[in-house]
């Protein structure tokens, strides 16, 4: 079986979330640097501090532009009769296999950014945790949830016999 890909709009969502975090972290760094630059004991270390800030900023910009594209290529999911398989990651690709009979409940969620973009997250809850399939169109998310529910009920009925 071949992995299904996420909706392309998830790239925009990931980039917006990362951009917000860049602004927050850079604001904290700027406030800290302003506070420390007012102290004379920090003067000998200012060059080192700016180098560290430059490295952090370069990494965050790379995470903003490059990582979503890599992550999108890695992300995939398969829903078969007996399991849900989710593959994701950037540097280390992780594959999670969830047996249908272990599913306790399914939720569909949208944050404000995803709601504006029209995409959802399908969360599959088991006794051991929660697993999500991100970046699914709202219609596909509903059909995935209904399909999983019907597969779970049919598996449970076949086990009761």
Order of helices and strands: HHHEEEEHEEH
The CATH topology annotation of the largest domain reads as PH-domain like
Mean pLDDT over the full residue set: 90
Overall geometric form: elongated
Counted by DSSP, the helix tally is: 5
Which regions have little confidence, pLDDT < 50, spanning 5+ residues?
Answer: none
Helical residue percent? 40-55%
Structural class: alpha+beta
Describe this entry's structure for a reader.
There is one protein chain. The chain has 161 residues and is an alpha+beta fold. The protein folds into 2 domains: 9-70; 78-160, PH-domain like (Roll), CATH 2.30.29. The protein contains 5 helices and 6 strands; from the N terminus they run H-H-H-E-E-E-E-H-E-E-H. It has helices at 9-37, 46-65, 67-74, 112-117, 138-160, and strands spanning 76-79, 83-88, 94-99, 103-109, 119-126, 129-137. The chain has a 3-stranded antiparallel sheet. The protein is elongated and about 80 Å long.
Write a concise keyword list for the protein shown above.
161 residues, alpha+beta, PH-domain like, 2 domains, 3-stranded antiparallel beta sheet, 25% strand, elongated
